[in-house]
Amino acid sequence: MSPAELTAPTAPQRRVLWTLGILRSELVTVLRRGRTLALLGVLAAVPVLIGIAVRVETGDGSPAGPGGGGGPAFLTQVTHNGLFLVFAALSATLPVLLPMAAGVVAGDSVAGEASAGTLRYLLVAPAGRSRLLLAKYTSVLVFCLVATLVVAVSALVVGSLLFPVGEVTTISGTRISFGQGLVRAGLIAVTVAVSLAGLAALGLFVSTLTDSGIAAMAATVGVLITAQILDTMPQLEAIGPYLFPHYWLSFTDLLREPVYWDEMVRNLGLQALYTAVFGSAAWARFTTKDITA
Fold first, then answer.
1. What percent of the chain has pLDDT over 70?
2. Most confident of 60-69, 236-245, 281-290
3. How confident is the model at residue 67 (pLDDT cuts 50, 70, 90)?
4. How far apart are CA 203 and CA 278, in angstroms?
5. Could you tell me which residues are beta bridge partners of residue 176?
6. Measured distance CA(247)–CA(255) in Å, rounded
7. How far is CA 7 from CA 3, 4, 10, 125, 151, in A?
8. What integer pLDDT is reported at residue 183 of this predicted model?
9. H, E, C per residue of 226-285
10. From CA 45, how far away is CA 187, in angstroms rounded?
11. Close Cβ partners of 30 (under 8 Å, ≥ 6 residues apart)
12. CA 203 to CA 106: how far, in whole Å?
């Protein structure tokens, strides 16, 4: 056997290399797309607007928020510690802006390729449909993490520039160091990103049902809005715990001392369930779908 044959990758290794190549290509495509950059720009601007608004409103020493307590959670604490702008910004963007951005990217993941006529060319690669679908879902999850970090980093920078920073007073009334507060902020950002996993899987499934990227994005955002409305209706409180947005704001329990894990565990379990159900549905649909575009 020649040295070239000894060093040549085996068939499983070639499939792995193809999968990694497709994943890298998907990540570059998603993160460099003009629409994605626009979404990230809007998300980065939200903490800036909140920080400036709070700074202007409290310039005369009055408390933040209407009547001293309105607005997103943690808003009243921002003037005392700029780190709380991270928590306030995530609380403000999680109900609508962050999941809407994730829904747009997820809905366009497969349908956008079909409408552009590039999907069948992607399937020429030996990685196969299953690995392509996995790469697309992974790229959506990476976008969710990047989007969340953009909000958190923007809020941290603005909060540090406009307000004092220091020890953090938790919801329980105890105080932790600024370093521990930064760690909690990082954990909260990751938790928020993971909270979007169920919506990402749902959007991926919707994206396999149509060849229109716009239709898939609209349908995913429509499901998001519908779930949010249903979750706020007292008459439907029995189904609330089964809706994917129900436990999204449970990340606030990371600011307790000790940390309350119950609702966060329920949130992660619910996202895992949605990911399993709609991820499987997306796989079943995509692997049997006739690709004509």
1. 83
2. 236-245
3. very low
4. 9
5. 168
6. 15
7. 6, 5, 9, 22, 46
8. 93
9. HHHHHHHCHHHCCCHHHCCCCCHHHHHHHHCCCCCCHHHHHHHHHHHHHHHHHHHHHHHH
10. 22
11. 36, 105, 139, 140, 142, 143
12. 5
Residue 34 carries which DSSP code?
A: H
Measured in whole angstroms, how far is the alpha carbon of residue 72 from the centre of its chain?
Answer: 19
Q: How far, in Å, CA of 21 to CA of 29, rounded?
A: 12
User: Which DSSP string do the residues of 132-170 spell out, in sequence order?
Assistant: HHHHHHHHHHHHHHHHHHHHHHHHHHHHHHHS----EE-
Residue 168: strand pairing partners: 176
Cβ–Cβ < 8 Å for 228, 191: no
CB neighbours of residue 290 within 10 Å: 4
Rounded to whole angstroms, the Cα distance separating 49 from 124 reads 46
Confirm if 151 and 93 have CB atoms less than 8 A apart.
yes
Q: Which two tokens stand for residue 241?
A: 């715990």
Cis peptide bond upstream of 234, omega within 30:
no
Burial pattern 195-229, b for ≥16 Cβ within 10 A else e, equals: bbbbbbbbbbbbbbbbbbbebbbebbbebbeebbe
- Token code pair at residue 266: 């329920």
Q: Which residue reads 């999941």 in tokens? A: 99
- Looking at this protein, which amino acid is placed at residue 199? L
130 and 208 Cβ atoms separated by less than 8 Å:
no
- Mean pLDDT lowest for which of 19-33, 81-95, 199-213, 231-245? 19-33
Tell me the pairing of strands 168-169 and 175-176: antiparallel
DSSP 61: S
Looking up tokens 């105080």 gives: 175
pTM for the full predicted model? 0.87
